Predict the structure.
Amino acid sequence: MVTPTSGQQEMLDQLTTEPGANHSWQINLAGKVVAITGANQGIGLGLAEVCLDNAADTIYSLDIKEPGTDFTALQERHKNLKYIQTDVTQKSSIQEAILAIYSAEGRLDGFVANAGMTKHQPALNFDEEQLHQIFELNASFHSFSFESKVFGTYHCATAIAQTWIDRGIKGSIVFTASMTSYRPNRAAPSAPYGGTKAAIRNMAHTLAMEWAKHGIRVNSVSPGFVRTAMTTYMEGSPDWELKMKYYGGMPRLARPQELGGAYVYLLSDAATYTTGIDIPVAGVVGAW
């Protein structure tokens, strides 16, 4: 058997979706640059922390809002946490952010499409404008705010995939879906929110199928109840303990960082044959 030279092996590695000869099987993000949308706070910021604690070279938050004190505090510990103001509902804004990352770092290995907000209320209480704020390109700020979930996620995925295909890069995309993509959230119902998250989870499967030949992996993670600015009110509701008793599973909200292990795995080189799946991280609560 003829052993290829290092130059030949490098060329072979670029032509196949299989891992190369010097592939690392460690579940960490050593040397990787990852972009996370909506990472100035909440789940996204928790994911950034876990990625950085697992040796990520640089994490970029792509967020429309300016960073707050929580972001600054994490940046004090991790100087390689950076921010680019980005409107994820506008594909041109995402493309500009991607080009800025390549200009600064020379690479972008992973992309987490995480940004999103909602309002929990009965279906009959949503008016037409509110529905459009979820399903269409609308990220306006009123008394509450929706970021475009389906369109924003789609724009993020297609923008980074086109960049990777053009450059011959094998990368990993991870969507943040939700336990409500499987079944209704009885504690805090929101039919439009669940509908968008189900669409995102299905989109991950379909894009994974389309882009597998390029070595681009697409997966999703479905969180359960997570403690963020949008959910802390739930713990203060009078019937919270009763709801948790009959939901089963872990009777508490998760810390955002508790989701991070699933994302680190999916972004890592240990997951080179993992694509088109969803990982529920829901403490059993409401996931199945």
Q: What stands out?
A: The chain has one domain: 25-281. Residues 191-211 form the longest helix (21 residues). The two ends are 50 Å apart (CA to CA).
